[in-house]
Specification:
The protein has 140 residues and is mainly beta. The protein has 2 domains: 79 residues, no CATH class; 38 residues. The protein contains 1 helix and 12 strands. The strands form 3 sheets. A 7-stranded mixed beta sheet has the order 3-5-7-9-10-11-12, with no helix packed on it. Strands 4-6-8 form a 3-stranded parallel beta sheet, with helices on one face. A hairpin with a 5-residue loop joins strand 1 and strand 2. The longest helix has 7 residues. The relative contact order is 0.13. This is Leucine rich repeat-containing protein. InterPro entries: LRR_5 (IPR026906), LRR_dom_sf (IPR032675).
Length: 140
Amino acid sequence: ESYYVFYNSNGSYRYIPKSLKKITILDGKRISDYAFYRMSGIADVHLPKTVTEIADNAFNSCSGIENVYYPSTRENWEKNVTVGKNNESIDGKVRFLNDSDTTTTTVSTSTTTTTTSTKPASSSTSKATTTTSKTTTSTT
């Protein structure tokens, strides 16, 4: 098996298998610079509600990321979480978990808004599409 190798500031190395697809961060306020740099095999990241900062380059070159789950609302994310530079890998991929453990994702264009609500560990999906003249976000 091949590994990502990271050099820590204390002089040690850490090895993370390239086969890793899911990262679950249980606690903490800050995701450090280059924490997951170039880990292109990661598909899903689960963040705790305690995260308030994603430092520069934390997810730089993580091209495989499909979902970043955050256990709160879009409003809390926008108010409480600062995302540093060069984290484009997570742009548009944050999914907001509500109390029933379903996610709300909104994909918008100028004429159509599609809202999908799914459970992260489940294959069941419900979809509703509404045509409108402005972009809206709805939660179900």
